[in-house]
UniProtKB/TrEMBL annotation:
This is Uncharacterized protein. Residues 534-555, 589-599 have a biased composition (Acidic residues). InterPro entries: TPR-like_helical_dom_sf, TPR_rpt. It comes from Skeletonema marinoi. Residues 520-533 have a biased composition (Basic and acidic residues). TPR repeats lie at residues 304-337.
Length: 629
């Protein structure tokens, strides 16, 4: 039985209880002490108030220094203030902006953690888009796509787009908030009109207001179901399942797998596809050949773009296996038989192989992309062949094979060769190259691609990869100087298809002038089009907003002028007249030149030592005998 303060048992004494007299005395003493402290505190406050009043009545002395503040441990208890750490999270949460996770906003993450989370979210978003578009291409229905195209032309919104889903989600949130506010206001009005405890707004009272549903709303089961729902004896009755089955069979006959049918032609338009089909018919010499299925654009190109973006994000996150898978899928869908590419997936894949030290995979890639004229592919092939020949000394790799690949790369983009041969000079001449390096979509063989490749400061691609290889830049310079210092008669004997010719190096002037003319022509055409649009739509504000949104293209004339300046500096300094270092050149083609250089060095040393002609001849015979041996 629980004890209480009072004594309910009659046989006990009246003064007996759960609390003893000692406890009662202790409580009384504590109470008296607290009252005494309270009384002293009031007296102290009155004394301080009187002192302040007296100080206000006394005249002020400017020379008197201000009273020093007492230290904290000497202050009275009522003046000490301890910091309040309660509700710290609630006070900090008040400063969090709307539509922001409080935990994320208040977290103390570093820059790397924040960037990694951004990359992860961007990767998941692109992955969802890739998955949705892939499912659509694998089950391509021409009839449904035609209906969607007509609806889009009429102004209908694509319900599968991410923008439409986000907009619809925002509208639903707004409607839900308005509905909750309306319901709350109705409840408040009902409470105000009928009272809080009234049953007017309750479900039981509301049900009495409505009529009872009739038999037409009943859902009977078993024997109670009507006969017309069970037996199909009505001629007007149509089974919805049979109709749906017929529609599904018709759709299955129409559906095409675009990824399987159009593999290798995802980047082609209808005109280019017709040319490809004509060329294939001409090669096969068969008039009854099957016509190729047309690639549905722009969905195929959009799929290639999304896959390339996904691979780039995976590469940035250092998920090399996933990035390789995405880039290889882009190569298969885009095809390797075309001389150009609308994506930079193959360039990024080659850079990934080079940076991760995968020479075998890189070799297979450039052998597969033999028709590609990009500097990223051809110069990477030359670098790998140089490493295999000069540094690793592998079987099958020779100086001739390395020079052959370098000559092929120079024919693709001659500007990169000078960037690699004299990087310090071009580093001084070229400016504003950061935008081009980060852009990554320059056309093959252009000066913009050369700047993007030759001005890259990263160690895992471009010039940084060449600079990290021993003797690679000196080898390129030696090959260029050997060709420039060779006469036209000597160079004409070489096979133009395999070996580098002086005309290949001197073609940079004509190519650069052609690029400048094309850039000026395109710029003039764009200016004329803008002028015509301004005349037609002078009062329309949307035209001006559209002009501001257009991305500015790089000025090719400015970069071409910088390249010309660097070449002039090299010519004035006599860099192209210097003798190459023959340590990096094959010995089979230049044995005669080496002998001449050896004779010249021997004669110079003999003259410096003051030797006689006989001694010189003797030394020459000794040298010749040694060389014969």
């Amino acid at each position: 039985m629980a004890k209480t303060k009072s004594n309910h048992n009659k046989h006990r004494k009246k003064d007996a209880g759960n609390w003893s007299n000692a406890d009662h005395e202790h409580r009384m003493a504590t109470r008296i002490a607290s009252l005494q402290k309270k009384r002293e505190r009031k007296q102290r406050a009155l004394l301080e108030q009187e002192e302040q009043n007296e100080e206000q009545l006394q005249p002020l002395d400017d020379d008197k220094p201000p009273a020093a503040k007492k230290p904290k441990h000497e202050q009275p208890l009522h003046q000490k203030r301890s910091k309040n750490y309660r509700n710290k999270h609630a006070r900090l949460a008040q400063h969090v902006p709307e539509h922001t996770y409080k935990h994320t906003h208040l977290a103390h993450d570093g820059y790397e953690q924040i960037e990694s989370s951004k990359l992860r979210l961007a990767t998941s978003q692109i992955q969802r888009q890739v998955t949705a578009l892939k499912e659509r291409l694998e089950e391509w229905d021409p009839v449904e796509e035609a209906e969607l195209a007509e609806a889009a032309a009429e102004g209908a919104v694509d319900e599968t787009s991410m923008e439409h889903k986000l907009k619809l989600h925002a509208e639903h949130r707004k409607e839900d908030a308005m509905a909750r506010a309306k319901a709350q206001s109705e409840v408040v009005l009902l409470h105000a009109k009928h009272g809080v405890n009234s049953s007017f707004h309750r479900r039981k009272h509301n049900l009495k207001k409505h009529e009872r549903p009739g038999p037409e709303t009943w859902k009977l089961k078993g024997a109670a179901r009507p006969a017309w729902e069970v037996y199909d004896f009505d001629t007007r009755y149509q089974d919805p399942h049979v109709k749906a089955h017929e529609d599904a069979n018709a759709r299955a006959r129409r559906v095409k797998n675009i990824i399987r049918l159009c593999k290798g032609r995802f980047a082609l338009d209808n005109d280019e596809m017709d040319e490809a089909s004509d060329s294939s018919d001409g090669d096969n010499n068969n008039n009854n050949s099957k016509k190729l299925f047309p690639t549905p654009q722009p969905y195929c190109r959009k799929y290639l773009s999304l896959l390339t973006q996904l691979g780039s994000l995976q590469l940035e996150r250092k998920n090399y296996s996933s990035a390789r898978k995405d880039f290889l899928e882009v190569l298969e869908l885009e095809g390797t038989n075309w001389p150009y590419s609308i994506t930079n997936a193959r360039n990024q894949l080659m850079n990934m192989y080079m940076s991760t030290n995968r020479p075998a995979s890189a070799r297979k890639l450039w052998e597969r992309l033999d028709n590609d004229g990009s500097a990223w592919i051809r110069y990477s092939a030359a670098l790998i062949e140089y490493v295999s020949w000069n540094l690793l000394q592998e079987e099958g790799s020779t100086a001739e094979s390395a020079e052959r690949l370098l000559a092929k790369a120079i024919r693709g983009n001659v500007y990169v060769a000078f960037f690699l041969g004299w990087p310090q000079m071009f580093e001084k001449a070229m400016e504003y190259t950061e935008e081009l390096v980060e852009r990554g979509d320059s056309p093959s063989g252009s000066i913009l691609e050369a700047i993007e490749y030759g001005c890259c400061v990263n160690d895992d691609k471009g010039l940084g990869m060449w600079g990290g290889t021993d003797g690679s830049l000196e080898w390129v310079r030696s090959v260029i100087l050997k060709v420039l210092n060779t006469s036209d008669d000597e160079g004409s004997d070489a096979n133009a298809e395999d070996k580098l010719v002086k005309a290949d190096l001197m073609s940079w002037e004509s190519k650069l002038a052609k690029e400048e003319e094309e850039y000026e022509r395109e710029r003039n055409e764009k200016e004329d089009m803008k002028a015509n649009e301004e005349v037609i739509e002078s009062d329309n504000e949307e035209s001006s907003n559209h002009e501001e949104e257009d991305e500015e293209e790089p000025d090719s004339l400015m970069y071409a002028g910088m390249f010309r300046t660097a070449m002039d500096w090299l010519q004035d300094a006599g860099e192209f007249l210097q003798a190459p270092s023959y340590d990096f050149i094959s010995t089979e083609d230049n044995t005669d030149e080496k002998d001449e250089v050896d004779d010249m060095t021997a004669n110079q040393t003999a003259n410096e030592d003051g030797l006689d002609d006989g001694d010189d001849s003797g030394s020459g015979t000794d040298d010749s005998s040694e060389s014969e041996e």
